[in-house]
Amino acid sequence: MGNATEQACVASWCADDDWCTVTCSAHLIGKKWHPVIIHRLLAHGPLGFNALKAEIDTISSTVLSNSLEDLEENGLVNRAIVSEKPFRVEYSLTEQGASLESVIEAMDEWGDGYLRESSS
To answer: Fewer CB within a 10 Å sphere, N or C end of the chain?
Structure first.
């Protein structure tokens, strides 16, 4: 393994197998709310915390906060302070996060087809 990002992303049990890249992708966006947050930021652009929470109304504030922190630590989301008084933060996708657009679109399309088939 090369750099620290690779080592943090790919589990030691992966052992440089050719599917390690899939493991890395799953590690970064495989948590329940991560793809949804990315999807909402792709659809609406930068959003404040409350606006993002309104876009994902079933997520708790704690889970949203933890998920955003995780996505930020992994370089997929930017957090910018846009106002000190009142304090406001805005979240946006980094270039790396925005590059997930085709992945998120593919997940959306596949999920749509799967749900239509399974409800038939």
So the answer is: C
